[in-house]
Amino acid sequence: LDKATPMILLGAGNLGRAIAAHIDFESKGFELIGIFDSSPETVGEKIGNLKVSDISSLEEFCRENHPVGAILCIPKEAAARETDRLIDLGIRAFWNFTHYDLKINHKDVAVENVHLGDSLATLSYRLNSGNEE
To answer: Residue 105 CA to chain centroid, in angstroms?
Structure first.
């Protein structure tokens, strides 16, 4: 955790914004170096100290900055399309908030899947079963 691995975020909607603005990446061993989105209304906005870039500039950015990880806060269909592109650009680790299963086609990358609905269901189960650990 003492090494700052460069990471990018795809998807600057509500979830992506919250993650970019409120996660202390440095304390977890990462440095958020770029945020990308396809929405013309979002591109150019500032989140924290980073400006949202158009997804069309992803290749150039990755060639110049060499990110190793990506945070996916995009729709499942977009994740299926963008994952191959990201791996070709050198991304080897994914913090995946989509419901796309990256491991099916990409066994050689590190993936941490986050399913917020599953987490909420687990909380409900613990609350209602009397097991509130």
So the answer is: 18
Model confidence, pTM:
0.90
What is the number of residues in the chain? 133
Quick check: helix, strand or coil at residue 27?
helix
pLDDT in tens, 75-130: 999 998 899 999 999 999 999 999 898 887 888 999 999 988 888 888 888 889 87
Phi, then psi, of 10 in degrees rounded to 5 = -110, 120
Residue type, 111: V
Give 47-102 as a DSSP string.
ETTEEEEEGGGHHHHHHHH---EEEE-S-HHHHHHHHHHHHHTT--EEEE-SS--G
Q: In what order do the strands lie in the sheet containing 46-47?
A: 46-47, 50-54, 30-37, 5-10, 69-72, 93-96, 110-113
